Input
Amino acid sequence: MQASHVARNRTETAYEITAIESDEHLLRIDWDDGHRSEFHMVWLRDNCSCEECGDHSGGHRFFELGMLPDSYSNEANLVDGMVQIKWLEGHHVTKFDPAWLRAHCYADNERRKRRHHPITWDASITGNVPEVDYPKAREDDAELLKLYDSVRTHGICLLRNVPAEVSATEELASLLSYVRETHYGRVFEIISTPNPVVIANAPVPLRPHTDENFREPPPGIMIFHSIRASEDGGGASVMTDGFKLAEDFKKMYPKQYELLTRAPIPHRRFTDGVGLRAEAPVISLDYFGNISEFRLNDRTMGPIDLPGDMVEPVYDALAKLFELSYDSKYHMEHLLMDGEALVFDNARVLHARNGFNGNRHVRLTHVGSDEFYSRWRLLRSSLQGDINLI
Output
């Protein structure tokens, strides 16, 4: 059966194949930019997406790894601009679009290029935070993509001209993802009150932290929607890039950095019928050693549960990192005015707050990062032809 593996929603390929050769184990492709791709035959057979085999991308897969043949064809050719492979079993034929193959090349340098490269920042970003006009983002996909890209790249975006009405909070959230409901409800009201149960409702300054590390997973994308700013000009949001903190921490304290990438730190919340507990390293890394997540909150940390010889070193590392997070050179400050909102990635950006004495009202809601980045990929694909977005 003949199949065609065509990249969806793609621009024309920027690369052309100059040579192709194969043996029983590998397909080698030379490209016009000098790059050489090597694809294992087992990988190519697994990625056939004909009607008989089914397609991985939609979960409609009929071909099983137990069906892999003992040996593979070495007959691969360019036919009408497509890479055609004839397999030994059942006269099966697969055609791969060169653009799809190049986008999925797993040579080390190509894999590194595909990885996300965040732009880290410190206090110098104050006054220059990426921003988007909310009404325009609702009507213009290009402006909406700007919002998604800002959160993806910088971890944060400021929205202007959001209605200063309670009904607008979930309208904004629905534009980005689905609201994640918790025991706090769909939206948490941050309003100064006497004797608050939660410290967020006290008019006191708060240290930089990521939220709700006691959940599995913690909240992904957070939204602060300002209904009313404090009359005294206090209560400014203080935002810190955890990735920048981690980068500098690694340079200053390499051994402590390494320790905080592998020591699980427990967090818990036991109150009013809620019993939550989760643990993870402060700094999570991807395959290449790049920072992928950052979690830090001393107020919700539970008793450290580690081998005895790790306890003192971990406390030492944590103390050094907390001290670094308090340094104002990392703090971007912005006083949210009525009708403004901050959207940020809770797996990266720490938030804090200055003290205030007025009647401040900010609404907080969380949306799922999985759906958020799903919509980002679809929008990028639709507007810019990107494929295989990581």
Observations:
- Residues 123-384 form a domain with the Double-stranded beta-helix fold (CATH 3.60.130.10).
